[in-house]
Each structure stands twice: as C-alpha cells, then as structure tokens.
Design brief:
The longest helix has 14 residues, at about 50-65. The chain has helices at about 10-15, 35-40, 50-65, 100-110, 130-140, 150-160, 175-185, 190-200, 205-210; strands at about 25, 45-50, 70-75, 85-95, 115-125, 150, 165-175, 210-215, 215-230. The protein has a domain at about 10-130 and about 145-175 and about 220-230: Rossmann fold. It is of the alpha/beta class. Helix 7 packs across helix 8.
C-alpha cells in the first residue's frame, strides 16, 4: 500500500486496533491514504469527503491498488448520510483543522459510532509558541485551513462531544517546505511568500519549528497527535 510507513498514517492504524469484522468510516478521506492502509485489516470502508475532486482521485488510486472493499461518497461532513451507530471504527486523519465547526464534526462521529466503537483523530497540534505562526503558514498553504488546535483545546472538544480518550501518541513530523506547500493548492508565488514568512519569524519560533535552510530550500517540523476515542 502506498501508505505503508507513512508517519501521518501509521499512528492512526496502530491506535485504531482494527479488527477483521470492523465496518470503518474514513471521515474526510482526502486522497485516501488512511482508507488504503486500513482496508486490508477490516471488513469494509466508507470513504467520505466534501471535496469531490479529492475523492475522485482517491477512487482512482484505490482502483489502481485493488482496494475493492472501499466505497467513496461525497457528502456534507457535518451532516453525514448514515444512520446512528453505523460504524465500529471512524478515522479522522488530518481533517479537523480545516473544519469551521470541529465540535459539530466530532458529534457526528459520536452519532455514527456504535456503542463501544472507536474513533482515531490525527492532526497537527500547536502550543503557545507556535500557535499563531504555524496556523499562518498553514493558511497560506491551504486557504481551506481553519485552525490547528492546542492539546488542551482538543481535549475540551472531545469532552464536549462525549468521546472518551483511551490512547494517545505524538509524532514529530519533518517536512520539506516546498513539498509541503505543493501538497496543498499553493502556487509558485504562494511558495515564495510561505518561505519568506518562515524566514521572518522570531528566532524562538524558528527553533520551536526546527526550521532549517540549505541553499534555496527550507524545512521545518511540527507535532501531530493521534488520539483513540471511544463512544
């Protein structure tokens, strides 16, 4: 699978503890990395997203990979077209940061989970030193970005959604700035702006982001948190 060894997918699969009998929802599937990784380990996957273009690319890639247990559906992520208690497992990989109403999203996750079902949320997290700056970079890269949250903000969202934490891991992700920007809809002009902004940040922020420069290239790092939640 193309997701094998992907540090943005492996923690999700590990915390999910998939079972062969699981019916799984890949919530905000994007181009399908999490769906492709979990599909061989569960009975069935529903991959949903509100971005039809991304979902069509996921379906194309899934066909190439022979993932015949995945169904793809474009829908409103805040009003899922599924009845209550439809899924044993829900994956939310790198999606909550772009939703204006993350609590509504998590309440939908709670609604469609079966009693005792598991959800795994994986997304970047910020702290007091990086909050303003990393969110600015993310917004320049991806206009749909809403917010990367602090750990304590996620904990409050989970509490309000009546989802109970049963496991957690944190991964330090290091990215080449050009590749990271190009993975979003950033244009070449946007890339120049993003790199200039990174270079302009206070030294303490650059240290917190592990910013590094070589010739015309730049890289940085950030923490991503995976949390297993149960209904």
């Amino acid at each position: 699978m193309i997701a094998d060894g992907d540090p943005a997918v492996t923690p999700v699969v590990e915390l999910a503890q998939p079972r062969r009998s699981d019916v799984c929802l890949d919530y905000g599937s994007g181009v399908g990395q999490a769906a492709f990784a979990i599909a061989p380990l569960v009975q069935q996957v529903e991959a949903v997203d509100d971005d039809g273009e991304m979902l069509r690319e996921a379906e194309r890639l899934g066909a190439e990979l022979g993932c015949d247990t995945i169904t793809y559906r474009q829908c409103d992520l805040l009003a899922l077209p599924f009845s209550q208690s439809s899924f044993d497992l829900v994956l939310c990989q790198m999606v909550l940061h772009r939703l204006v109403e993350p609590l509504t999203a998590l309440r939908e996750v709670h609604r469609v989970l079966r009693p005792g079902g598991r959800a795994v949320v994986f997304d970047a997290v910020v702290d007091e030193s990086t909050d303003r700056y990393f969110n600015e970079l993310a917004r320049l890269r991806e206009p749909a970005h809403w917010r990367h949250y602090r750990v304590e903000e996620y904990e409050e969202l989970f509490r309000l959604a009546s989802l109970h934490e049963t496991g957690r891991s944190v991964t330090r992700l290091s990215v080449d700035l050009d590749a990271w920007a190009e993975a979003g809809p950033a244009s070449p002009d946007d890339l120049g702006v993003i790199q200039a902004r990174l270079r302009s940040y206070p030294v303490a922020v650059q240290v917190a982001l592990d910013a590094a420069y070589a010739d015309q290239r730049a890289s940085f790092s950030f923490d991503a948190m995976a949390v297993r939640l149960e209904r």
